[in-house]
Amino acid sequence: MVLAASAFSIVLGATLDWAWHAWRVKMRQARWGYFLAWGLGIVLGIYALFQANGGAAFAWIAVVLGSMLVLFAALSAQRLSQNSIKEGDTIPQFTGLDANGEPFESSDLEGKRLLIKFFRGHW
Q1: What is residue 92's predicted lDDT score, i.e. its pLDDT?
Q2: Are 107 and 92 in contact (CB under 8 A)?
Q3: What whole-number distance in Å separates Cα of residue 11 and Cα of residue 14?
Q4: Could you report the per-residue pLDDT of 54-75, keeping only the tens digit for each?
């Protein structure tokens, strides 16, 4: 039971830390710690399942959740290119839709103060 609960706690702790950083949009560049924690939780969960000392539900949750999160995190890697836009840079030319669905050119915005929000998922 203790081993299964430990596996669950490790996976849950790493997941909550991941979610906290994702919510704050301040993901850590080095994500190896998450993979290490989830991997450890998976291994402990599998070991707890073979020990059959109780806590099978915790062990299964640790194995399934840990495996899913390792897969999702591995597939979600987002890299910044060398020429990515930084705060204060001039925006490149583009065409977009305004709040009313009308098209506009970025050159039409020159000299105006504005906030442009781009949303990207990080999961």
Answers
A1: 82
A2: no
A3: 5
A4: 678 899 999 999 999 899 888 8
